[in-house]
Amino acid sequence: MGRLFITNSLNIQIIRLFTKMRKLLFEHKDLILKIQKMEQELSAQGHEIKVIFEYLKKLLSEKDAREGQSERKRIGYK
Known about the structure:
- The structure is a single chain.
- The protein is an all-alpha fold.
- It has one domain (2-67).
- 87% of the residues lie in helices and 0% in strands.
- The longest helix is centred in the middle third of the chain and has 42 residues, at 29-70.
């Protein structure tokens, strides 16, 4: 009888927990929607930041290539 009582009380607690969670979700649906919107905006900005860093790396590599050319011996008119 002890196990049956514990099992039933545990099931009741689980059901209460899920009803509280559902109530919270319905009460704060607007907050959840705002959070999802913010996540989408940040992910879009993350892509833009990634593109900026790619351009910076490209510019730095071009600068290094140009500096390497200035070190070589110049030919032609002085």
